[in-house]
Amino acid sequence: MPIRAICRAISVLQAVNRMGPLTMMEISRAADVPYPTAFRLVQTLIYEGIIEMDPDLKRYKPTALVQSLSCGFQDGELLVEVARPHIISLTRRIGWPVSISSRVGHNMILRDSTHANTSLTFERYYPGFTLPILDSASGRLCLAFTPVEEREALLRWLRVSKLVDSEYLKGASDALNLDQIKEQGYAVQGRNLHNLTPGKTASIAVPILKDGDFIAAMTVVFFVSSMSVDVALLRYLDEMRLVSSSISNILQDYSALNAS
User: Fold this and answer.
1) What is the DSSP string of 110-166?
2) Which residue did the predictor score with more confidence, 71 or 188?
3) Are 230 and 190 spatial neighbours (Cβ–Cβ below 8 Å)?
4) Which pLDDT band, with edges at 50, 70 and 90, does 257 fall under?
5) Residue pLDDT, tens place only, 206-236
6) What is the band of 37 on the pLDDT scale with cuts at 50, 70, 90?
7) Which of 71, 93, 194, 204 has the most CB atoms around it within 10 Å of its CB?
8) Who contacts 33 (Cβ-Cβ below 8 Å, separation ≥6)?
């Protein structure tokens, strides 16, 4: 059973780090914790030197010390190095932003994106942005390719932690059509509700594999008002598969080279 206070502290820190500077009320809403709890957690994080209040704006923002939380993390560097030129090239051809994300815990974490390389986006998303695994194209794709035992353990954790409605989780594998997603090799999200512009974009995600195992999702994001998901699939799915296959093959070559 997760320790609730730690989960809430992490939510507060993530909110400030991702969207700051924020007022105390904005922190409470973004982290989904009661105002008094947000206040106590913010004061604790200030004491630890991880966030600070801007005296002019009366808002809270992360300090340089927040970088110490990631100093031991090195995974994903090769993935980004290999994928970066391919997703930039894809964006130049189709216009829409492309992102690479992988699972960390119960979320999908953005590793890289081309939102800064195109005007066809409402917002710019940077590495570290999180998406819920059950309510994103990349997340459902990841679950579909996750071994059954590992997937069930993750769903049990979500149930115990009460992060997701337990009734919804009872038939999650069937309700999310995970077997179908794996068979067809892609996942879609008709409306992205958990980003910076809820409901305005849709997504298609395809897998990046290494040794047959899921490494990351490559996702194309487009305006809901511009076309339907079916039209987007006809226009972009084949090219997305070619690009993700190229990235997968290069990662496989690196793996084989290191093994030898």
Assistant:
1) EEEE-GGG-SS-SS---TT-EEETTSSHHHHHHHHHS-HHHHHHHHHHHHHHTSS-H
2) 188
3) no
4) confident
5) 999 988 899 999 999 999 999 999 999 999 9
6) very high
7) 204
8) 8, 11, 12, 41
